What does this fold into?
Amino acid sequence: MGFWSTPIGWTVLTIIQIVVIALFLLLTSAFVIYGDRKIFAGVQWRKGPNVVGPFGLLQSFADLLKFLLKEAVIPDGADKAVFLMAPLISVILAMAAWAVIPFAPGWFVTNINVGILYLLAVSSLGVYGIIMGGWASNSKYPFLGSLRSAAQMVSYEVSIGFVLITVILQAGSMNLVTIVEKQAGGFWNWNVLGGGGLHDLPMALVMIPMSVVFFISALAETNRPPFDLPEAESELVAGYQVEYSSSPYMMFYLAETLNIMFMCCFISILFFGGWQAPWPTPYLAAWPPILASLHGLIMLLIKALFWFLMFALVRAIVPRYRYDQLMRLGWKVFLPTTLVAVAVVAAWRVFTHTA
It folds into this structure.
């Protein structure tokens, strides 16, 4: 361990971690896209991808090859540098958010005490990729789509921020590892049920609605149906990326998929215990550390898979909102609701917990 504790060893180890997680995310995103299409097809009684590979499992890889081989068309009059930088920025920021996600005990790129603040900063910067893509296209429809997306993302980041405050108050920390560790011991300790066992169970009346608000806000934040207003084909001809083709379009789509995967993991960590099992796990103390970590990773993946299923079913079932309905929901319903929730959770912590 001597070499790995040196600055050079730490740098090499961190780069290896980043590469492993990046490869894992890229491979997982291929099957997430496949799963999204199959669920959508199943709801509509269609087959979905079923030709390329067994059960169509290699369809996403065939699509990747197609995107790489197609010509990248840049519109006349477009700002070429900004036009090509926009999807790249979107992918980089979508990847950067995963740096603080704890997959299992000890499995993370970095463990910082202000992990939630870091994620808020990175998600706020994600608006720039969309705005740049819409503006650089030199067309009114992509520009209108990017403006819609920016307004939508900023609006729902406000409600997400207040929901995060309720979790921070429950856990007493902005460190994601600490938030997960405090939910150990069984599902009755999860933040969705108050985060403090039977003593804090009344807070479930607040935290369960907050988890629902977070899920709906995550749909809007990632431009998923029924909130895909920036990509409303009947109004904006597919929105801010309509002028994109080939690899740049693929990067926009990859960034959206990575953000969906991130939100599925994030809601699992904040409200549903992250890598913690829904039952007490004293037996893990006798397990080798690698097996205990794999146990935690499997738990997180199961929860994230459930939330991805919810994302996919909402896409297939719920009709699209009008834009005025979308903004009214964010500003007139979610904002006051989350403000009241923050006040209630703070009062509960002050008056029911001793120092």
In short: The chain is about 65% helix and 0% strand. The mean pLDDT is 88. Residues 7-43 form the longest helix (37 residues). The two ends are 40 Å apart (CA to CA).
